[in-house]
Write a structure and sequence with these properties.
445 residues; alpha/beta; Rossmann fold; N-(1-d-carboxylethyl)-l-norvaline Dehydrogenase, domain 2; 3 domains; 8-stranded mixed beta sheet; 19 helices
């Protein structure tokens, strides 16, 4: 079976490589010449653990190829995925559908045979039907079906999520006379490797599939904001957020995941999708007060974190050196989009702080987002050298193994502000460090 992936970005590239690993022949269309040339050489323009080997192996096996032209990529393809970007539209928070609609137009002009046109991008409800309309307008004689197959990839765990997902959601035009049986058969064959692993495959209508993606991401965003507010409450009443969330997570109705407090969520999905779902609800005339509060809580939290750091530094960071460990919005990715480090570091610099930052893979991608005065370091020791305070913003595993005695030796001051609760307060305090975390009471040692 041959398929095509329109878009060689994060979602498109990971999905294409995994489908190729399943044994299908996959053609990827990427119009950025620099990115295309890199991909043809097996060079990965994004950081995702294991993706470089997966791409390289499938190129060598002849199952994965890259093109800049849809005409060359889609012949004989039974399924054509649209996996282009849907960034927030300037000014209103709606998802920008420019690239999706353009891809549909190009497919209509190039396709000469029946295929299922599958939306992989995160898109508003009604997009698949709009794609069908575009296809008919551009090529009235074209035979096709449309489908919605949203991705649920976590950066840093994307290959695992693609190869062994919790579930697969496939939306079809069930209101068609034939119930879109031909499209359903193609999608079943495409996901046959997962059927054999007893992965839940949910076939539904187009609108339900499109909404499921937003609903899932936004629910997790709500969960994170709720836990962050609980952490603040714990600090005021003397409770421990780790004990509280452990007690919550043991309830099967709640679950253990996304119960860790932090400086606010970021990344390419949660901030964008919470805004987009708000707009979808507004256009449908439905209240979305929980989502509105989630967005406000998250933005306020990012802003408040810099104030917390300044307060711990005796209310003044002017001419003080602050070591920052972790810049990306989460570990195991180089993605800086909507990272909490951006507003926090900007505020610290505006207040006169000198920033010495280190991220295991994010130093390069961070530069366009952060003030020019930030000094990027090659390791933890360099970042901590003569620092008055040290701040943990991203919980990279290598930070967990740091010895407080080393920090004490490297730093000028003794303040450690752990916004990810990486360290044991007792261990830090026993070494003489003034340790601050989130939602955990300070205990005398």
């Amino acid at each position: 079976m041959r398929i095509a992936m329109i878009g060689g970005g994060y979602v498109g590239l990971v999905s294409a490589a995994c489908f190729a690993e399943f044994g299908f022949k996959v053609s990827v269309v990427e119009t950025n010449p620099d990115r295309l040339n890199a991909l043809k050489k097996g060079e990965i323009p994004i950081y995702e653990p294991g993706l470089d080997n997966l791409v390289s192996n499938n190129i060598k096996a002849g199952r994965l190829s890259f093109y800049d032209n849809i005409d060359l990529a889609i012949p004989e393809c039974e399924a054509i995925f649209i996996a282009v970007g849907t960034p927030p539209r300037n000014g209103d928070g709606h998802a920008d559908m420019t690239y999706v609609h353009k891809a549909a137009q190009q497919i209509a002009r190039s396709l000469k045979h029946y295929a299922v046109i599958v939306t992989k991008s995160t898109v508003p409800v009604g997009t698949s039907r709009r794609i069908a309309q575009i296809l008919r307008e551009e090529n009235p004689a074209l035979e096709f079906d449309v489908a919605s197959n949203p991705e649920f990839l976590r950066e840093g765990d994307a290959i695992k999520d693609c190869m062994t997902p919790d579930r697969v959601i496939i939306g079809l035009e069930k209101d068609k006379a034939d119930g879109a049986k031909r499209a359903q058969e193609i999608m079943r064959r495409l996901y046959q490797p997962l059927f054999q692993k007893e992965t839940p495959i949910v076939f539904t209508d187009l609108e339900s599939a499109e909404l499921t993606k937003y609903a899932s991401n936004c629910f997790l965003a709500v969960k994170l904001s709720y836990v962050n507010e609980l952490a603040d409450l714990c600090e005021q009443v003397g409770a421990n957020i780790e004990d509280v969330t452990r007690g919550m997570g043991l309830d099967g109705r709640i679950g253990k995941q996304f119960l860790r407090p932090g400086p606010g969520f970021g990344g390419s999905c949660f901030p964008k999708d919470t805004l987009a779902l708000q707009r979808i609800a507004q256009e449908a005339g439905v209240a979305s007060r929980v989502l509105e509060a989630t967005v406000q809580t998250n933005e306020g939290r990012k802003a408040n974190m810099s104030g917390r750091i300044i307060g711990i530094c005796d209310g003044n960071v002017y001419n003080k050196t602050i070591a920052v460990l972790g810049l990306t919005f989460k570990p195991d990715t180089d993605d800086m989009r909507e990272s909490a480090s951006i507003p926090i570091i900007h505020r610290l610099v505006e207040s006169g702080a000198k920033i010495q930052a280190f991220d295991p893979v994010g130093n390069k991608t961070a530069k366009p987002y952060l003030p020019e005065s930030v000094q990027y370091c090659s390791n933890v020791q360099e970042a901590a050298n003569q620092a008055d305070a040290l701040v943990i913003l991203t919980e990279w595993n290598e930070f967990r193994s740091l010895f407080p005695a080393n920090l004490k030796q490297w730093m000028r001051g003794n303040k450690v502000i752990d916004l990810r609760n990486v360290y044991d307060p007792k261990v830090m305090q026993a070494e003489g460090m003034e340790y601050h975390s989130i939602g955990r009471p300070m205990k005398k040692v």
